[in-house]
């Protein structure tokens, strides 16, 4: 019997060892595979630069969504800066004969699409062709594709051209029903980040700012589409209101598309344009591969550093989003790097923790003392995202950026009613008058509410102070356009919250000019995670759970779920945060 158990134990140990060895062998093979995938790319003659579903356009390296098993080019992410530079380079590249836009759904923000669209419009000046093809086309994809010389649609396809709308979700009735109390203290009648916990309907102030925002963005995007398709503005509005794009024949009739054809016929058309025979291969090259064909060595020469800050702002030291400890390290490294002659700080954030935002702003102010600091806004740079821009020498915003939201709030959840309904109560023993000014069961004491109100008001005054210093305006002038109100980039330029309307690429060029550089390389920070870092991040239980849920219910629904379940969203602290992300898809 002893011999039997010894054999069983030995077999178990052998299996465990084998599994461990296999696991580490798998990791090593994965790393080598990832390293080997960075092959040199050769651009063939008669090539067509292709924008399709295989490429995700992202604003920051921290938005990279590559998973543990994603080692192919299928989901290759491309930074918007690199994508725009690639299109500019393709304009004078003799091997690139044209651009083909083949994306039914485009994974990119509205300002990123703006930048791509403008770059493609500039590419057309070379005389090279730009064609677009679609099946079931989202509004965002059509916004990009409409810049093409010709737009082709599948005979059974559709174009979801419908205008913009927003749906605000409210949780007050839910909280009341289940006995969840939420104490809210805010400064600014437009500070609508807390409205879902206070009301069951939209406030007049919030309706006003949302209507203004949506109309500003739609005016910018719809006018470009109408102009590209040579459709009268009034007629284009009728087309959108009537959803004519949903019916292929009507889309053709009302000039949304130039011809209905199958994808094979579309490829033949491009071959004919390039004088390629039907039986010959059409050389298409993706943005990612084209960028890889000419990527410069960043190790030598003077640099302009682009520091990307994408996501919500928190205290801590994690990779995704904007964690203050991590960004303080990045900023200090750039400050002490002699090869970096200027820094462009790219912000794509709705804000977050007031304390973390203040920490980041201080370090940026120290950086500015040593070298030029230019700020570029992406889809949104509001509240805390706007606050951290206040160290800038100059601020560039996109026309469709959501910015401003100069306001502060505190959200304090407690569960007294639900606890009492279920037979749970508490008694407090303390040493001082306010040792327990806040309790998850009993909420905030009156003195605690008064204290937090003073903190919110103090933080708001500090916010406005830094804005007055950077924008060279009085407290009264900033307070009049503050109050938590969100503005489009176009209006932000008109009221003096930003200096220029322009792209990230424009900001980089200005930074080089301010630093006196004629020749320079552009280096991106933070660096993308190494294969090992990505592997261990993907093995994190929370990461796995989040991915599964997000894939099941969709990104938009997942963001709603986060508002009521994510502990970082409900932390009892003073916040500078904006609740909106406006998208055109």
Automatic annotation (TrEMBL):
Enzyme class per UniProt: hydrolase
Molecular function as annotated in GO: hydrolase activity
InterPro entries per UniProt: ClpP/crotonase-like_dom_sf, Pept_S49_pIV, Pept_S49_SppA, Peptidase_S49, S49_SppA_67K_type_N, S49_SppA_C
Lineage, top ranks: Bacteria, Pseudomonadati, Bacteroidota, Flavobacteriia, Flavobacteriales
Enzyme Commission designation: 3.4.21.-
TM regions (residue ranges): 12-35
Species per Swiss-Prot/TrEMBL record: Chryseobacterium salviniae
Record gene name: sppA
Source taxon at top rank: Bacteria
Predominant location: membrane
Domain Peptidase S49: 123-265, 366-517
Family: Belongs to the peptidase S49 family.
The protein's name: Signal peptide peptidase SppA
Location in the cell: Membrane
This protein's UniProt keywords: Hydrolase, Membrane, Protease, Serine protease, Transmembrane, Transmembrane helix
A Pfam family hit: Peptidase_S49
Residues spanning the signal sequence: none
């Amino acid at each position: 019997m002893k011999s039997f158990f010894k054999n069983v134990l030995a077999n178990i140990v052998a299996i465990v060892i084998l599994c461990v060895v296999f696991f580490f062998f798998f990791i090593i093979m994965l790393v080598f595979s990832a390293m080997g995938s960075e092959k040199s790319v050769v651009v063939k003659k008669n090539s067509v630069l292709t924008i399709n579903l295989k490429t995700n356009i992202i604003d920051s390296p921290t938005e990279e969504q590559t998973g543990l098993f994603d080692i192919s080019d299928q989901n290759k992410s491309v930074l918007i800066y690199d994508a725009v530079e690639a299109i500019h380079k393709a304009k004078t590249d003799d091997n690139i004969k044209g651009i083909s836009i083949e994306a039914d759904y485009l994974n990119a923000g509205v300002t990123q699409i703006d930048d791509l669209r403008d770059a493609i419009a500039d590419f057309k000046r070379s005389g090279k062709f730009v064609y677009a093809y679609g099946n079931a086309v989202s509004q965002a994809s059509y916004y990009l594709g409409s810049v093409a010389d010709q737009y082709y649609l599948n005979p059974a396809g559709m174009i979801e051209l419908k205008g913009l709308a927003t749906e605000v979700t409210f949780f007050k009735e839910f909280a009341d029903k289940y006995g969840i109390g939420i104490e809210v203290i805010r400064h600014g009648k437009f500070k609508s980040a807390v409205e879902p916990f206070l009301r069951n309907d939209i406030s007049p102030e919030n309706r006003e700012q949302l209507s203004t925002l949506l109309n500003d963005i739609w005016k910018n995007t719809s006018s470009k589409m109408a102009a590209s398709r040579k459709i009268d503005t009034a007629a284009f509005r009728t087309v959108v209101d009537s959803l004519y794009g949903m019916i292929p024949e009507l889309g053709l009739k009302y000039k949304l598309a130039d011809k209905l054809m199958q994808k094979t016929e579309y490829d033949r058309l491009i071959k004919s344009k390039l004088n390629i025979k039907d039986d010959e291969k059409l050389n298409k090259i993706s943005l990612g591969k084209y960028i890889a064909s000419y990527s410069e060595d960043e190790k030598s020469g003077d640099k302009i550093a682009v520091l990307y800050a994408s996501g919500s702002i928190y205290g801590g030291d994690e990779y995704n989003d904007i964690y203050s400890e991590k960004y303080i390290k990045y900023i200090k490294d750039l400050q002490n790097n002699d090869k970096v002659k200027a820094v462009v700080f790219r912000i794509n954030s709705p804000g977050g923790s007031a304390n973390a935002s203040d920490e980041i702003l201080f370090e940026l102010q120290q950086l500015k003392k040593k070298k030029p600091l230019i700020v570029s806004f992406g889809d949104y740079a509001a509240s805390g995202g706007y606050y951290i821009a206040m160290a800038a020498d100059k601020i560039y915003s996109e026309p469709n950026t959501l910015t401003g939201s100069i306001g502060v709030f505190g959200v304090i959840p407690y569960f007294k009613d639900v606890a009492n309904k279920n037979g749970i109560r508490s008694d407090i023993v303390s040493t001082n008058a306010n040792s327990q000014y806040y309790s998850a069961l009993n909420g905030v004491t009156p003195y605690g509410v008064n204290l937090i109100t003073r903190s919110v008001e103090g933080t708001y005054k500090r916010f406005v102070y830094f804005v007055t210093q950077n924008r060279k305006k009085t407290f009264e002038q900033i307070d009049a356009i503050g109050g938590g109100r969100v503005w489009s980039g176009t209006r932000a330029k008109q009221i003096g919250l930003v200096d220029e309307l322009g792209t990230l690429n424009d900001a980089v060029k200005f930074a080089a000019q301010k630093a006196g550089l004629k020749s320079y390389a552009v280096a991106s920070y933070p660096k993308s995670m190494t294969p090992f870092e990505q592997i261990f991040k993907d093995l994190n239980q929370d990461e796995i759970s989040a991915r599964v849920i997000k894939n099941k219910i969709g990104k938009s629904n997942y963001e709603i779920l986060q508002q009521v379940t994510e502990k970082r969203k409900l932390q009892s602290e003073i916040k500078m945060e904006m609740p909106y992300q406006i998208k055109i898809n």
